[in-house]
Design goal:
Layout lengths: L1 E5 L3 H8 L6 E3 L2 H6 L5 H11 L4 E4 L5 H12 L5 E6 L2 H13 L3 E6 L2 H10 L3 E4 L1 H6 L4 H14 L5 E4 L5 H9 L4 E4 L1 H8 L2 H17 L2
Parallel strand pairs: 1-2, 1-8, 2-3, 3-4, 4-5, 5-6, 6-7, 7-8
Helix pairs in contact: 1-3, 4-5, 6-8
């Protein structure tokens, strides 16, 4: 499974990237809006200079021509840009156009297997099912990951399942077990994944024993 970080905060990306486990980055308008005072393109360009992997940058337009125009501009920022489009009829049209032009796409806000299948048929590079938001309305978010990975494998579709809206380390584990090729993970969940009280206790015990030995 590949690990992407779900943030537009450059400092957070630099910190987690230093762990040598990051494969890519996902951003969205909400995350970019939190990084006030800097042009959108400048933030994306800086991120591309930190992580050498797929960097998702989302369009704002709601119509296919507008999405295509924005996506072409985004793709010119860096070779690693993946244009992020919403899972709508207009988004499917734009996805198909990008596929024909060799521009990679991340079709986002997927909440059903039929939505994901349509995105794959339109030519999506990635489809992003939102686990946490489904859990929020008492629907099994992880079941969607399993359905999509099974459907894509059965029919030989090259689209990758990118598990999104991850809320906990358990989500990452379950998505990996369900066969998702990618998980995009918030910074706080990366920290939770790394920490375990028994690891900390073990280190303290080793150091205490070493000190007692007098070496």
């Amino acid at each position: 499974m590949k690990f992407f970080i779900d943030t537009a905060n450059v400092a957070e990306i630099q910190r987690i990237s230093a762990w040598s486990i990051l494969d890519g980055v996902t951003t969205n308008p909400s995350l970019i809006a939190k990084e006030s005072g800097r042009p959108f393109e400048a933030i994306i360009e800086e991120i591309c200079g930190i992580v050498d992997g797929p960097i998702s940058a989302e369009v704002i337009a709601l119509d296919a021509p507008g999405m295509i125009e924005e996506g072409r501009k985004l793709a010119k920022i860096h070779r690693n840009i993946v244009v992020k489009v919403p899972l709508t009829a207009e988004g499917l049209k734009a996805t198909h156009a990008f596929k024909s032009e060799g521009i990679k796409t991340n079709v986002t806000l997927c909440f059903s297997a039929t939505q994901g299948l349509m995105a794959a048929k339109a030519g999506a590079t990635y489809v992003s099912p939102f686990i946490g938001r489904l859990d929020d309305i008492n629907l099994p978010g992880m079941e969607l990951i399993s359905e999509l990975t099974a459907i894509f494998a059965t029919h030989g579709l090259p689209t990758h399942v990118l598990a999104a809206s991850i809320r906990s380390p358990r989500h990452v584990t379950d998505a990996a077990l369900a066969g998702a090729q990618v998980a995009t993970i918030p910074t706080k969940v990366f920290d939770q994944m790394l920490f375990h009280p028994l690891t900390e206790k073990g280190i303290e015990g080793f150091l205490a024993d070493w000190k007692k030995s007098g070496r």
